[in-house]
Amino acid sequence: MKSRKSIFSRFFSDTYFLSLLFLIAGFIIFKIPDLHLPYYWDESWVYGHGSRLMCASGPGILPGALPVDVSRGHPLLFYFLTSVWLKIFGNTIFASHLFSLFISVLLVLAVYKLCRTFFSARVAFFASTILLFQSIFLAQSCAVLPEVMLALWIILSILAFYSEKKTGYVIFATFMLFTKETGLVALLTLFLNELLFDWFVNRGEVEKFPRWSKPFRNFRKYLLIIVPVFIASVHFIIQKKMYGWFFFPEHMNYISFKWADFARKFRGAFLFTCIYYGRNVLFFGGIACSIFAVIRRMKNRIAVQSILQNKILSFFGLFLVIFFSFSSLNFYLDRYMMVGVVALIIPCAYFMDAALSKRILKWTAVAGLVSTFIYYDATERTNSDVNLGYENAVVAYKKCVDYCIDKKFRNKIIFTNYLMEYALGDTLSGYLDGKERFPNVTSHFDETTELCIFSNLETTPLSDSVKKNVPMSELEKFETEKAKLSVCRPVK
Question: Does this model's pTM top 0.85?
């Protein structure tokens, strides 16, 4: 009975955590309208479609549980967990978005737990609150995409590793690799981080052995780090036996070692993660605070943070560099940077708390940051899935599909592009609401084409050429802020 009372008393005495729960409740209420929205971009033909397809055929974790053109050779944990959730709560658009929202809440709580464990409750609250107001997080928080889940496993892996929970680390790190191959970046960072500390950080100990030999004496630690790699390799070995390749060939074709490509994508990754959507204030403020914190500690002779805290901070700094480099060698999308944004927030929140001595300054800084992010959340809205502008784009597509249903265009030969092709041709993407698919939607234009649907979200040389050179009669148009669609009939 005493233990129960102590648990509840600790819970209710943590005002930072209670405040965070209040913010999370507001966040969930804010996102409820988005739970009914159809899928958008990679949700519509890969992750959302694949999860609902797996639910219908039966959840599976090994290659072959999904057609390879849907899974794209990725590990299947994200699909598996989503499909299990859908088996329980119903194979619907709403339920799939609800699962993603659940994972997003877990990520916020995991960030709080990590910072609470190694720093302080105040740093934990700062970091979690800043994450809640990020445009990319608000956009992806109920999207059926794996980036938030990947970030969750990374945070839990680091928490378990530095808490010396070996079993927990192996489980979470394995989950991370089974969610997306990008998780390997976190393990590489962890390995290098420990190696650098073993080589260069002097703990003031008198040792019989030279410092360079530390990694060899700590070989069990490094073996533990790479154990999840051996477990996850089972997926790729099976994939090799089934299809003849370890990684999806189309993805391998995107890899480029050209300096121009690398530099362009590295710059894009850095700018999106550290500069855009108000994060320039966070990034440069974090750098300034880190410098000021060091000077303040030296001047006032304040004890420096522990080796463990240094390891956590250096991990996230090193992770950003390696993650940007990895992303620059591969196919790049801004939405992949969800993980990088989390890695940026944690050290910035710590240094902001460490540098500012008075509470009023700390809270003023956090309030200023949150106000900045709210401003960008409200004003910087495009048709991308990294900000809240995607909501209006989805609404425009849904209105266009509803129009085509009402006008009984189902059997028409329709020329359009990728997203509308899936909106009209896939019953799992949420636009048809249980109605029959449009069987004659294509991205090829010829003399048999009866209707054309153009969108400013997706343009190709062919669609631009058709729109410019073929006489058209516009039947209807749909506009919501920056999304513009038009349904046209070729004039023959």
Answer: yes
